[in-house]
Every structure is written in structure tokens, then in C-alpha cells.
């Protein structure tokens, strides 16, 4: 059985939230996002965006953070976080403090260099303001910005435009002697007209991941849902995130979950199938 530096198995976080409250899931996320990046935490002032019930604030403190400020939009989660940290022996205002506020309102009032590391776990797909958030992070200028998010995976994101053109050409070749040839020619024209142009911001590679956002709606009454009354959210694609990092001057590394030789992906399947990605970015 794998041993983790921080084990959530005996902590109150398993009972103060229904969202991702599996010890295995929390252990692995803490291991990959924080423990493996301990250098970004030790002796540092940390901002934990969407701090929920304080689970990752606790982990950051365990890994040597000097102080953690958590910002959460729901008061009952702030209350749970305060109670959890007190039960675990930490002191409010000395080691941490939790603030109930809209994240963007709070970020707009933060001065540059006020925090060394900013954490953003499980929030980026519960908003439509991804550009505003990343630009605010740049303005604040932390040394490190660690993101963990669900991403959208559509046809254009899964296959490069070059690959799509190749597939379409093969289809046209197969059907060139049939009555469907005109239909496929029309499809070819439409796809070539609507496809995204090449974007030099995103990894100048042969297979460019095209940037886009996939919009949807959440039930605002769900525990982990957006606070805004509209319920409108957007999932960023991998290409969108990497484009925004580059445009705003961040260098970044993707956290490599698949290099861990994880044998059992129960509770962490989104990291296995690529529906969830993690990055550490720095200016």
C-alpha cells in the first residue's frame, strides 16, 4: 500500500464536504500538486483560491507554508474550513485565515507580490472569467501559480486541424465515385472556413491544440457549483490554457500524472483519461 507524505484518512475533511471527499483522491491530489512541489510552499505566503473546506490550506501548512489565506464564496464552507483547521491544531490569523468573498472581487484588491504562490484547484471550470483570472494572477506576480482543472475535450481539441484535413481527404478519396462526392466537398469547404487559424502562441508544433471554451450551466445549489446566480460556466481546453499562459508571459510545466505508474485509478480517473489537467506556472 502506497504511503503518502500527507494522509487525509484521519482528517475531518472526509466529513465536511461531499465534493471529492475520498481519502484516496485527496491523497493523490495533494501528492501530485503540492508535495511534489514542496519548494513552492516552504516558508511562503500562499493564496488558496476557492479554498472550499480548507483541505489544501491544511496540506500547504503541513508542507511548511508560512501563512495561507483561503478565499471561498460560500460562508458555510468557510465555517467548515475554520473548524477543520482549529481541530487540527492550527491558529487562525497566525497560520491561516479564511475569507468569504467573490474571488474576482478579492483578487482585484490584492497588491503585487503579496503572495509567493497561488493555488487554483477545481475552480477554473466553474466560471466564465478565465482570462480575467489569469491576467489578475499576472498582475499580482506570484513566484508560482499551480492550477488543477477539468478541461473540455472536443473534436478540434482532440485532433489537430492537419489531422482533420488528412481524414477528410481520405473520405473524399473513398467517395469520389459516389453521389456523395458533392456533399463531402461541401463539408470540406465548411470545415476549412470555420477552423481556427494557426496560433503562434501555442507551442509551435505540428499538431497545435486549438484554443476554445466549452460553455455550460450548473445548478447553483450544488455544493461545488458557481456562486453567480446565472449558473453559466465554461470549461477551458488544454490549448486555451497554454495559449493564455504564453500570452501573459508565464512559463509552465504540465504535472505528469501518467509517469507515476499508478496501478489503480479509482477516484482519480479524470487524470487517467485526460479530462483533468494540472499545471505549475511561473513568471
Please characterize this protein's 3D structure:
The structure is a single chain. The chain has 283 residues and is α/β, with parallel strands linked by helices. 34% of the residues lie in helices and 17% in strands. The protein folds into 2 domains: 216 residues, 3-Layer(aba) Sandwich (Rossmann fold), CATH 3.40.50.150; 38 residues. It contains 10 helices and 9 strands. It has a 7-stranded mixed β-sheet with strand order 3-2-1-4-5-9-8, with helices on both faces. A two-stranded antiparallel ribbon has the order 6-7. Strand 1, helix 2 and strand 2 form a beta-alpha-beta unit. Helix 7 runs antiparallel to helix 8.
Output the keywords.
Rossmann fold; 2 domains; 283 residues; 7-stranded mixed beta sheet; alpha/beta
Summarize the structure.
The chain is α/β, with parallel strands linked by helices. The chain contains 10 helices and 9 strands.
